[in-house]
Write a structure and sequence with these properties.
Elements lengths: L1 H18 L11 E5 L2 E16 L2 E8 L2 E8 L13 E11 L4 E10 L2
Parallel strand pairs: 4-6
Antiparallel strand pairs: 1-2, 2-3, 2-5, 3-4, 5-6
């Protein structure tokens, strides 16, 4: 009888462990995914470029539940030439530093038609 309880206990533990495993690589707005072997959150927003200084832009966007200006690193897309007034889609790692303007870790930038 002890063997039956041990087997039942082992099956329950294995079932619980498999239920707690990650459910894949999601890399859309606010979801988790694997980037360079590290699980990270990837978020995105669409905004309009207000100012460009070198490879950095100030973008007005709705981000993190509010609306305001955000520093965006345009150098992550070397194939595109951005201009003031362009509407862009920005992916970032989910972290927003509270500064004025807000700062993010830009992962990708692309023009929106």
């Amino acid at each position: 009888m002890d063997r039956k309880y041990i087997l039942l206990f082992a099956i329950i533990i294995i079932g619980l462990l498999s239920a707690c495993s990650p459910n894949g690589d999601k890399t859309d707005n606010g979801n988790t995914g694997e980037i360079n072997g590290i699980e990270k959150t990837v978020s995105n927003f669409i905004g309009t470029i207000k100012d460009i200084n070198g490879h950095r832009a100030i973008v007005n966007a709705k981000i993190g539940g509010g609306e305001g200006d955000v520093f965006v690193d345009l150098s992550v897309n070397k194939d595109e030439t951005f201009q003031v007034g362009d509407k862009i889609k920005v992916e970032y790692d989910g972290t927003i530093l509270e500064s004025s303007p807000a700062k993010i870790n830009t992962l990708s930038v692309e023009l929106v038609e």
